[in-house]
Amino acid sequence: MAVIFDPNCIFCKIGRKELSADILFENDAYVVFKDIQPKAPVHLLVATKNHISSIMEIQEKDKELIGGLILLAKKIAQDQGIAASGFKLVFNVGRGGGQVIDHLHLHLLGGWAVPAQKKVEV
Ligand code: 5GP
Ligand code: ZN
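# guanosine-5'-monophosphate complex -> structure
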């Protein structure tokens, strides 16, 4: 199925290769890339290719897409070698929740050498 995109959206542009990013994985539905301002030794963004502006916009029909997003985050955490030590998955929702980019993405954060450093704000 064709990707639904917003021509003005930064993460749509990354998914369409109109804007460069350090991409670790992609398929028809998702793209995983390094956060430009990392807040942890490993800070990746797991994004849908379809433009969905936030968690507040997801619907029943998106269940599989969101489940797949979380499963992909788990796989990437394993591939990055941070699964055993533990990691965080964060959705910022709305401006009050810290969301800046209005395109659905899951923050994957981990790899702290010192456990105390895991108190992080994204
Ligand atoms: P939000 O606050 O919306 O949940 O997270 C957006 C994240 O996207 C931030 O952590 C920010 O550093 C990252 N970001 C913003 N613009 C870009 C960009 O152009 N490229 C990449 N790789 N990350 C970006
Ligand atoms: Zn978008």
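# post-check
The longest strand covers residues 42-48.
The chain has one domain: 10-113.
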